[in-house]
Structure formats: structure tokens, C-alpha cells
Amino acid sequence: MGKDVIVACDFSSKEEVMSFLDKFTEEKPFVKIGMELYYAEGPAIVREIKARGHKIFLDLKLHDIPNTVKKSMSVLSRLDVDMTNLHAAGTVAMMEAAIEGLTRPDGTRPMLIAVTQLTSTSQERMESDLLIKEPLDEVVMHYASCAKKAGLDGIVCSPLEAGKVHERCGENFVTVTPGVRFADGEIGDQVRVTTPAKAKEIGSDYIVVGRPITAAADPVAAYRRCVNEFVG
Ligand code: C5P
């Protein structure tokens, strides 16, 4: 599995994201485009960033009936992104439909990753609001197993869970892990964080890093530091 650093481009306009990417004159980082930027600028922003030579993780977290997700994934696969995602809570049937929709006529498709329980969901909230009574980490592992059963490539999880996910679902089941901070950096609103080096040690395949790079005084240096620690 090729390890890589994915830069979360959480900007709300084309101007902001392009002026950020313009700083990278030597490398072409793998870029995550989330709802904020996609809803602000539409699919054109994906094509433009792709045309600049970046790999793209389109983080839109689909969750709907299988037929709707299948058709939406079919449209997204035409954007030629490298990775996209959905909520495992949509069921195995929805995830299977997503794979069908995402697969291009030539049999290729972007990697498909499942979100399990959002890290913003606490045990208490899961029990009271979702009426799920099992321990949260078991729910995450169960959703990971469902994603694997449906044929997905991996899940988004905390870097601290990456080892356990590999144990349960195999070494080739991809772990994409946000919540990464430098040892001497600001944590911000993230709670369960670890460093790029530690994420590598535990077994993350891709780390998703936002503010430690986007808000750094020197984003290119911060990106290089991440790559050095994580990819080596
Ligand atoms: O700025 P920061 O490094 O915290 O950015 C992390 C990125 O990963 C953000 O785009 C955030 O939405 C995303 N993410 C996360 N935790 C999850 C899923 C996605 O932080 N469980």
C-alpha cells in the first residue's frame, strides 16, 4: 500500500484554494475536497484541481437510498477523482450499489472509503439519538466489516484505530486517518490526535491533514515535514 499525505483543502472559494495550491511549485499534494468547497464552486473546481496534476479525495459522504447513491456515484466517477466516500450507516446494500455506480465502463473506479461513526458522535449521543447501545469502538469495527463485505477499499478512522482495523479487515483494507498533529503543534478542535510518525507506526495508509498545513506560516515546509515523518 502506497502511503501518502492528503491535504484537507477546507476553503470556501476557488480563490483561496488556488492561492494555497500555487505555493506548491515542486510537489503536487494529494488533495481532499470537502462539502464546503464543492458546494461553493461545484464540479468545476474538481476538474481544475485535477487538471493541475493533483490526486483528489472527494469527501462528500453520500448517504441515501441505494438507487440514488448508485446514480450519484456514477456521475462522480466521471469527474475522475482518485478516492471518494459514503456513510457505512447507509447499509451494505447502499455500499454495493455505490460500487456499481462508481465503476466505469472500462472496469476502473476511484477508491471508495466508508465513514463509520463520525468522530463528533459520542457514546452517549449514539445511544440517545441513534438508539445504538453497543460500545462505539465495536460499532466502528462492525461498520468496517460491513464496508469490507460490500467490496469497499477501506474506511476513514482515527489513526489510533488503524491497527485494529487492519487486524479485523486485513492489511490491504485501507485506513484513511484525520486527527493528525505535529508533536509541537496546536490541537484545535480535534480530540484523539497523533503525529504523522506515530500514525505510520500504527499502520495508517493515508493521513488527512488540514490546519497543520493550511494554517502554517510556511505550508510547503509543513507539508514536507508531514511527508518526511509519514512516508519517510
Ligand atoms: O484541520 P484538520 O487537520 O483537523 O482537518 C482534518 C480534516 O479531516 C477535516 O477536513 C475534517 O473535516 C476531516 N475529518 C475529521 N475527522 C473525521 C472525518 C473527517 O477530522 N472523523
Find the CATH topology: TIM Barrel
Q: What is the CATH superfamily?
A: Aldolase class I
Strand content: 15-25%
Q: What string, H for helix and E for strand, traces the elements in order? A: EHEHHEHEHEHHEHEHEHH
The hetero molecules present are:
cytidine-5'-monophosphate
Strands side by side in the biggest sheet:
1-2-3-4-5-6-7-8
Low-confidence segments, given as residue ranges, are none
Rg measurement, Å: 17 Å
**CATH architecture classification:** Alpha-Beta Barrel
Number of domains: 1
- Anisotropy-based shape: globular
Number of H- or I-type helical stretches = 11
Biggest sheet statistics: 8 strands, parallel, barrel
How would you describe this protein?
The protein has a single domain (4-230), classed as TIM Barrel, CATH 3.20.20. Helix 4 (66-77) runs parallel beside helix 5 (92-102), helix 7 (136-149) packs across helix 8 (162-169) and helix 9 (196-202) runs parallel beside helix 11. It is 43% helix and 16% strand. It has 232 residues and is α/β, with parallel strands linked by helices. The model has no long low-confidence stretch (mean pLDDT 96). The structure holds cytidine-5'-monophosphate (C5P). The site of cytidine-5'-monophosphate has 15 residues, from strand 8 and helix 10.
Short description:
The chain is α/β, with parallel strands linked by helices and 232 residues long.
Keywords for this entry:
alpha/beta; TIM Barrel; 43% helix
